[in-house]
Prior knowledge:
Layout: E1 6-13, E2 16-22, E3 27-30, E4 32-37, H1 47-53, E5 58-61, H2 63-68, H3 72-78, H4 81-85, E6 90-93, H5 97-103, E7 105-109, E8 114-117, E9 124-127, H6 129-139, E10 143-145, H7 157-184, H8 189-192, E11 201-206, H9 212-225, E12 229-232, H10 241-251, E13 261-263, H11 269-277, E14 282-285, H12 287-293, E15 296-299, E16 302-305, H13 325-329, H14 332-340, H15 344-370, H16 374-387
Amino acid sequence: MTSPIEWNVETTDGRARAGTLRTRRSVIETPVFMPVGTQAAVKGIRFEWLEDELDARIILGNTYHLFLRPGVDVIREFGGLHKFGTWSRSLLTDSGGFQVFSLSDLRKLTEDGVEFRSHLDGGKHFLSPEVSMEIQAALGSEIVMVFDECPPGDAGHDLTRKSLEMTARWALRSKDRFNELQDSGQDTGYRAADGLSGRQALFGIVQGAGHYDLRSESLAKTVEIGFDGYAIGGLSVGEEKDVMYGVLDHIAHQMPDDAPRYLMGVGTPEDLIEAVYNGVDMFDCVIPTRNGRTGSAFTSHGKINVRNAKFTSDKGPIDAECSCSVCQRYSLGYIRHLYQAGEMTAATMISHHNVAFFLNTMRSARTAIIEGRFTQFRTDFLAKIGRFAAESV
Ligand SMILES: [Zn+2]
């Protein structure tokens, strides 16, 4: 069976790669940042802004949240997640595993799957590799993630090994159920009606916490099963930064060359640049919008908080080097006033700028890779961001 996605590495510069990922819905130039649409929306940003101005080619949807609310039946009734919210480009859905382990209470974890109570109303639910594949088929994403277990960032060697062995068994079960669903045509009718291939792509996940030998072992097990793409999971879950960078340095370049590499749920702009340097292609993280809601803006000179009194009469934009519509039109002093006055527009403006900053940072990295100057770009980028680190909030 040929893969439903097409992946080409166009250029490499050291370990860094510039590639193109084609799905049934969009062409994605990498390295790429995927804004997170937790509840079927990227918080504070309408889809027309994401498409027309910010030109995001792929966003992420959260299986756990959508499973609990509005529920799979409602999304199925609309003909999938794309039609529910009118998003027309690519969508990657996570498996729900990470949220079950981080958000819900009273989990009962067995070989079969995990029983948990909803963080919304305490209702009892069950997720397993099979159920996760069924939900993601109904959501209709272009890229589906296997259902994995994510141990804490500081998990010991024994616990981590047990966990990654179960993750490998779950990955196999995910793939089996995924293939059954793709072959059966269940939940693919509405995509076929739009002239799109019904088939989704499936990515495997490499676990192993901060243990290099276990990361290698997990990678070998995952590659042996065989997936359309490979993700690094279990980072940015409470471990120290040098542990995360060590794992990236160890494992990213060992992942298959002929498939996209995706670092899940990470991170700050400097984390992204470090991961690109080590050969990662795809990223997602909630921080552009989460920080946007708390007044924190990412700029080419580091992070600022618009609440800071020194911005009261600042007539300049959030970031003079940013081309987003917020920076083209509004002053920092005005946005600070909106934030202080509790105007929701402040949060949407800062979120909008932050998403633009993350997308543009990856575009600049891509250009630098293509032009063979990524190492210099990385040095300059990190120096510039660090310059005002002392002022960060
Ligand atoms: Zn901007």
